[in-house]
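note to self: dont lose this again. the chain is below, predicted strucutre after it. 372 aa total, dont forget to put it in the shared folder this time
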Amino acid sequence: MLETSRRADLTISMVRGLEGLRVIKPDWDRIHFAMDDPAYHQEWGWMAALQERLIEEPLYFVVLGRRDQAAAILPLHLQTLTKAGIKHSYLSFPHHNHVVLSDALIDTDLIGDEDFRDVLYFLEHQQEVHWDYIQLSGIYARSPLITWLKRSGLELEEFSANAYFDWDAGPFDTSLSKKFIKNIRRLATKAEQEQGALGTRYINDRESLPAAFEIFLELEASGWKGEVGTSTAIKHSPDLVSFYRQLLDTFCGDGAFQINLLEINGVPAAGQLCVSSGQSWFIMKVAYNDDLKRYGPGNILMLDFLEQVSTAAGFTEVNLVTSPPWADRWHLKKRPVYATQYFNGTIKGRLTEVVQHSKDVIKGFMRNGTND
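---
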């Protein structure tokens, strides 16, 4: 474990890999427990599953301490990228196609406004990891990391969006498209008349989840995601299957891992793979039966889930994690997802900064030219 700091009241250390993550688990859990409204990707079990099942390279965890307590933990993934024949090394949040949101863990009572600058100083001067720039993306809009970065002088840009539904302001369907909901109910009636009875199941107990997970995998692989040669279905990736099974084992103890299923005449028609954290349900993956898509089974299930969870105690939000095009038809609310960059003083780091700045200037000229 490497440890250094510029100030007497701070300690900054770094551990690596699954073994290092296990060492800092007590600190991780303490910070996570103190957070006002944590999200699934801030859970220790989520990070452990990523390291153990999806990311081959050892991750690095920078731990900032104050008064003998961990004040922040920053997970980092060392990656390489070749541009114009030049190989660059950069640090990011843990990266994978199935990782959308990322974050640091922060104890807002212990962290100082300038502390992130100390973290950057530490990363620039340690000798274990050589990097040219830092690219942090997928930062959740409600994360305290945003304020911490801004107070340290770093600029953030909107990277993507995060669609969600909440019900603080009134009845369940206050902000949703009335016309769209009416059409969903019409198709549900049509499906029942033409195919048979509709039924929904919400499975979150340890005994029933494995079988429900297998049904979800088959549903997801039944459509375009499962086509031979172009498959992105979870079922066709042993690593992804292992990753989600580990999440199931990790989160199911308190009912936080749930699979929602819609059946039409006993036949699986649509599914949702969900994780709850804080006051929110996060829909990680959706799937539907391609043979029944004319009825919009995914929408029927979504409407039923929203109606169910909006009356349940303890929850105030259903979050889609991303902002898929079909979310617009529901008129869901959206939050920005942020990213930031920081360039090291290496030659490659400075060259990358100059190139990035040139691209930003050109984009600015193009936007101004379009507006003229």
